[in-house]
Amino acid sequence: MTKKSKKIPAPTPAVEPTPMTQAETERYEAFMTRRQTTPKAVKFVVKEGKSGNGSVTQDMAHGPENALAAFSAAAGSVDSDFCCRLINQAVNASTTGGLDTVGHSNAIAATMTGLAPQNELEGMLAAQMTACHNAAMECLRRACVKDQTFEGRKMNMTFADRFLRTFAVQVEALGKYRKGGQQKVVVEHVHVYPGGQAIVGNVNQTPGGEGAEHGNDGSTPCQQALAAQPDAIPRRLGDGQAMLCPVQKDGGALPATGHGER
Which portions of the sequence form the region Disordered (predicted)? Predict the structure, then answer.
């Protein structure tokens, strides 16, 4: 008897990635590259006690130094007591969302680590933002519960709106703190009446002294414009910038309108 040979299936042809698939792959690789610089979040485990009762504690599998580094990355401090208390506050101020205690604690710590606090103040903001976000999502969840009453839905949506507004303010506060409170003024449109001339730039006119020594030697565009139109007066736009406006017969300046965006 002859044995029947098994049929070997033909290899599956390689599928050429579409432009959309290629773009998604590139975005994922770029995301993973950025995340490599982010410290690993602190992890919690259940430690069994002598009486058989388990307690949630920090995972020390990678040594105490790595554990402290993970704590610092989440709370923005090198003080272990401060880090432990701040993370506990964020954990206790947030609902579990169906997770067990360990999973809930790990999720809170991962969220705070993702915000990358650089000091204790940023750590406190990270804890508040985490708790505020979770509270807003819990209110939205309760508003969508099956057979929820109209009053219950309205109340939860109202509180969710307040939490989300507070969260937006916290994000703005964190951004301003990290930027050092610097603001940038952008002038988009400047309208000048007929016969006028508009200049946006630094206008420095120092009375007295030699012109070259005080930066008033007529070499800058603004100074040249002032010399070309002596009947114009500069009107300040802020941050040392000015706009030239023609002068009326009575000596007053014609109004000029401008629209700026901060």
Answer: 1-23, 204-223
Query: What's the domain count of the chain?
Result: 2
Does one domain contain both 157 and 172?
yes
Nearest to 109 by CA among 137, 69, 79: 69
Query: Residue 172's domain spans which residues?
Result: 40-179
Q: What is the pLDDT of residues 64-121, one digit of tens each?
A: 677 788 888 899 998 989 998 999 999 999 988 778 888 899 999 999 999 999 999 9
E strand or H helix at 45: strand 44-48
45 vs 230, higher pLDDT: 45
Same domain, 143 and 198: no
Q: Each residue of 114-140: pLDDT tens digit? A: 999 999 999 999 999 999 999 999 999
Q: Answer yes or no: do 51 and 150 share one domain.
A: yes
Of 115, 118, 141, residue with least CA distance to 129: 115
Answer for the pair 29, 22: CB distance below 8 angstroms, yes or no: no
